[in-house]
């Protein structure tokens, strides 16, 4: 599917034949219709962690690179005529997901990355404090106020 969709979509929309436009539309409708099939709970009685048929279809679309092509069709200025088809496909891709789960998933990754960064900064700070302590121990702990000796010539000393 991706190969059949890539060739016509790589041409400028002015150079496309009517057949190419129909081919793109039919492929998008096919993907939409495949994703639109409702889940059958009696058929999908697998183990709890097992992927559903819908998830396997999404994985196949990802492996084939169809998701990248859909992103291109959605973002390209010259391909605006396919925007509603692509929007419908994307909404069907996320049909089993609740907005709360998707938002929590994104924040979970951001929180994990933030936690890793915080841990790394704390480790660097501890290392720097240890280096400062080591340098402080190497110096004498008491400061000598005697700055050296001075010699004055031509003056009498106090004691003689």
TrEMBL record:
Its main location: nucleus. It is found in: Nucleus. InterPro entries: Timeless, Timeless_N. It holds the Pfam family TIMELESS. It comes from the Eukaryota. One of its GO terms (cellular component) is replication fork protection complex. Residues 8-151 form the Timeless N-terminal domain. GO terms for molecular function: DNA binding. Keywords: Cell cycle, Nucleus. GO terms for biological process: DNA repair; DNA replication checkpoint signaling; replication fork arrest. PANTHER family: PROTEIN TIMELESS HOMOLOG, TIMEOUT/TIMELESS-2. This is TIM protein. It comes from Scopus umbretta (Hammerkop). The lineage of its organism: Eukaryota, Metazoa, Chordata, Craniata, Vertebrata.
């Amino acid at each position: 599917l991706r190969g059949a969709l890539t060739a016509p979509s790589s041409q400028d929309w002015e150079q496309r034949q009517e057949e190419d436009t129909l081919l793109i539309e039919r492929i998008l409708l096919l993907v939409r219709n495949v994703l639109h099939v409702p889940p059958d709970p009696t058929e999908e009685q697998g183990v709890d962690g097992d992927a559903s048929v819908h998830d396997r279809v999404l994985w196949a679309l990802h492996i084939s690179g169809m998701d990248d092509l859909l992103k291109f069709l959605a973002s390209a200025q010259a391909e605006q005529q396919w925007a509603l088809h692509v929007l419908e496909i994307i909404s069907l891709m996320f049909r089993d997901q609740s907005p709360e789960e998707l938002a929590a998933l994104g924040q979970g990754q951001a929180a994990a990355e933030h936690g890793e960064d915080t841990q790394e900064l704390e480790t660097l700070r501890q290392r720097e404090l240890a280096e400062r302590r080591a340098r402080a121990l190497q110096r004498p702990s008491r400061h000598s106020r005697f700055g050296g000796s001075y010699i004055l010539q031509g003056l009498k000393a106090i004691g003689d």
